[in-house]
TrEMBL record:
This is Nucleoside triphosphate pyrophosphohydrolase. Keywords: Hydrolase. Pfam families: MazG (PF03819). Its EC number is 3.6.1.9. Residues 34-107, 173-232 form the NTP pyrophosphohydrolase MazG-like domain. GO terms for molecular function: nucleoside triphosphate diphosphatase activity. InterPro entries: MazG-like_dom, NTP-PPase_MazG-like_C, NTP-PPase_MazG-like_N, NTP_PyrPHydrolase_MazG. It comes from the Bacteria.
């Protein structure tokens, strides 16, 4: 099916549909009311749904999820066009120009014969030029505030590491985790809720740094931990339901036993 459709025609069709939905006289009341701020959360949600489909390898769902994400771009471009700011063509041109600028070894005269390490260095040099053009002079400038907190923590730490502000290795980070854990306990026992929240945040920040040193994506690791918890708890519910009961009819010791049983079953299935 993909081979029989004209991408340009489908984009034009989508842009026309979005314009119709936003028409002040004949459009959809909900779509007309939306702003950049109200649409932004949906954009984030749709991006997560794309990732979810990929993680589940639900390839038949992926075109629809990518379409939902594309709609977010089209929606915001339409809002901008109505305000005389920019339009969809400007968005497409911006990313095309950026890709060409960042790949001189493909679209320019530079050689492609370079190591992955050298390519990373070149990439960072190119991005530094871009940041300078945006008057982003600080090392941490340009790290988006809207990123998930763990992801932003890693990006901030990576930026700082490029100028030498980093621990030598994971062992040093683990030592810092012990220090932050002790400070969290002290805050719990002796200080107020604001200090407790601050110390918890410090511990989470260092945990993200440990993930970076271990070359682990902390967001992905936590999502997998969430999925594992969900599977095992659902196993508890299924075991109790087989006896006509629910978790409310059980007790912690029994649920712990069922949890351990589910854990052993998962290990045996590997």
């Amino acid at each position: 099916m993909a081979d029989t459709r004209d991408p340009s025609a489908e984009i034009t069709r989508l842009l026309s549909i979005m314009a119709a939905l936003r028409d002040p006289k004949t459009g959809c009341p909900w779509d007309i009311e939306q702003t950049f701020a109200t649409i932004a959360p949906y954009t984030i949600e749709e991006a997560h749904e794309v990732e979810d489909a990929i993680q589940r390898e639900a390839w038949e769902e992926l075109p629809g999820e990518l379409g939902d994400l594309l709609l977010q771009v089209v929606f915001q471009a339409q809002i901008a066009q109505e305000g005389g700011m920019f339009d969809f063509a400007d968005c497409a041109a911006a990313i095309s120009d950026k890709l060409i600028f960042r790949h001189p070894h493909v679209f320019g005269d530079e050689s492609r014969d370079k190591s992955a390490e050298q390519q990373v260095k070149d990439w960072e040099a190119i991005k530094a030029v871009e940041r300078a053009g945006k008057a982003e002079r600080g090392t941490l400038d340009g790290v988006a505030l809207g990123l998930p907190a763990l992801t932003r923590a890693v990006k901030l730490q990576n930026r700082a590491a490029r100028v030498g502000f980093d621990w030598p290795g994971p062992g040093d980070v683990l030592a810092k985790i012990s220090e932050e854990t002790a400070e969290l306990v002290e805050a719990r026992d002796e200080l107020g809720p604001d200090a407790l929240e601050e110390e918890f945040g410090d511990l989470m920040f260092v945990m993200a740094n440990l993930a970076r040193h271990l070359k682990i994506d902390p967001e992905l690791a936590l999502r997998r931990a969430n999925a594992k918890f969900t599977r095992r708890f659902q196993s508890i519910e299924s075991a109790l339901a087989a006896e006509g009961r629910s978790p409310q009819d059980s007790h912690l010791a029994e649920m712990d036993r069922l949890w351990d049983k589910a854990k052993l079953a998962e290990k045996a299935a590997r």
